[in-house]
Write a structure and sequence with these properties.
Layout (H helix, E strand, L loop, with lengths): L4 H17 L5 E5 L8 H10 L2 E6 L10 E6 L24 E3 L2 E3 L9 H43 L2 E2 L7 E2 L9
Antiparallel strand pairs: 1-3, 2-3, 4-5, 6-7
Length: 179
């Protein structure tokens, strides 16, 4: 069964919202001049999810054509991919025809993402996940330190000295009143 373009967009809206709510990193790509970007539903969802946007010429990231793509994403670094074709290199021709996903492409590779683009997007996602993970570990460490400090104070108030390893040691009598 074929899905209309509008039906596909509705599915994308639901999937993107669910993915971001679940903590996933997403990227949504379409040609810059696609009417998708102008749909009220996408504009609302993009704003609600706090997505970042960038446009770039595909040839900057391994594509053979200077097609301008837009990517909306919750990956902060995605904007680093932005830029237009500097026109300092040759582009592949429009020769060849291929049917893929029910559409006719005028270039054999127009329906595939270049490896370089995929590698760069994956690198940005990895970088952000690592940074997010480091921040979580740091926050958890601070919370753990505060919890450990409370536990140590409680043990001291019961007359025991917190120590590394297993077990408790009674407080030195001369210092029991100091704690």
């Amino acid at each position: 069964e074929e899905v209309s373009e509008r039906g596909l967009w509705k599915c994308l809206l639901k999937a993107a919202a669910a993915a971001v709510r679940a903590g996933a990193k997403i990227t949504v790509e379409c040609p810059e001049n696609s009417s998708f970007w102008n749909t009220l539903q996408w504009k609302k969802l993009r704003s609600k999810l706090g997505l970042f946007s960038t446009t770039f010429a595909l040839c900057l990231h391994g594509g053979g054509r200077p097609a301008t793509l837009r990517v909306d994403s919750n990956v902060r670094g995605i904007r680093r991919l932005g830029g237009g074709c500097p026109r300092t290199h040759a582009h592949t021709g429009w020769g060849g025809h291929r049917r893929a996903h029910g559409q006719l492409f005028f270039h054999p590779f127009a329906s595939a993402y270049p490896y370089l683009l995929c590698d760069r997007v994956a690198g940005l996602i990895e970088e952000e996940l690592t940074r997010d993970s480091d921040e979580r570990v740091e926050e958890e460490g601070e919370r753990r330190s505060e919890a450990q400090l409370r536990r140590d104070r409680q043990l001291a108030s019961f007359g025991f000295q917190p120590r590394r390893g297993v077990g408790k040691q009674e407080l030195i009598p001369e210092f029991a009143d100091e704690v």
